[in-house]
């Protein structure tokens, strides 16, 4: 059997994903082409001894992908299930995977909150460009487990990502019931946010005695993110000790504002 024909290329990956061995895949595909056949015929086409073919067929039967016909009492032909069965099984497996992924995403805040970095090295990543800037911003909602802190210039941050994205982020944050504390520099944007605090799970304070700057930072779980919208540049630091230090600083600012 040529292993690079259209049928093989179409079925190999799904069958492999369903846990079939290389020999089980070969038997399934040759049987699909031959139709109901005797074991000796399949063995001849594949150049495999009949006892080994029986073992492979048993594996296919256990996976619900083959059966024997009952046409006669003394002679039974082997036949594999239709490729539609493969599709159905593949879809079910995919659905289970998607469900498990959703469950993992749902548990991620708890898992991250209980993650102890200890002596592990600090993780630092740098991202550039508006698309990465936006992706990192929305990824916070997948990892945050408690109060989110934001400190800096709402004017420059929202001016870069847009009010449309900011409102979308707020809606998704509220769906997840995540509260945010915001220490903002004076601006029209800051005042707009402050007026809607009670409706948007947020507490905003305006830092009127702080010299203005264009950047900001955000704290959640075990990460601190520095936003620089001019370049644009995003610096993501995953280090429990640096996060603890930054939280201590921002909480002190919060008390004094």
Comma- or semicolon-separated keywords:
two-stranded antiparallel ribbon; 7-stranded mixed sheet; 257 residues; 2 domains; alpha+beta; 10 helices; 9 strands; Endonuclease, Chain A; Arc Repressor Mutant, subunit A
What does this protein structure show overall?
The longest helix has 31 residues, at 83-113. The chain is rod-shaped, with a radius of gyration of 29 Å. It is α+β, with helices and mostly antiparallel strands and 257 residues long. The chain contains 10 helices and 9 strands. The N and C termini lie far apart (76 Å). It folds into 2 domains: 6-87, Orthogonal Bundle (Arc Repressor Mutant, subunit A); 123-256, Endonuclease, Chain A (2-Layer Sandwich), CATH 3.30.870.10. It has helices at 6-17, 22-34, 39-46, 50-62, 83-113, 130-143, 154-161, 163-175, 188-195, 240-256, and strands at residues 66-68, 78-80, 123-128, 148-152, 180-184, 202-206, 216-220, 223-228, 233-238.
Lay out the secondary structure.
Layout: H1 6-17, H2 22-34, H3 39-46, H4 50-62, E1 66-68, E2 78-80, H5 83-113, E3 123-128, H6 130-143, E4 148-152, H7 154-161, H8 163-175, E5 180-184, H9 188-195, E6 202-206, E7 216-220, E8 223-228, E9 233-238, H10 240-256
Parallel strand pairs: 4-5, 5-6
Antiparallel strand pairs: 1-2, 3-9, 4-7, 7-8, 8-9
Helix pairs in contact: 1-5, 2-4, 6-8
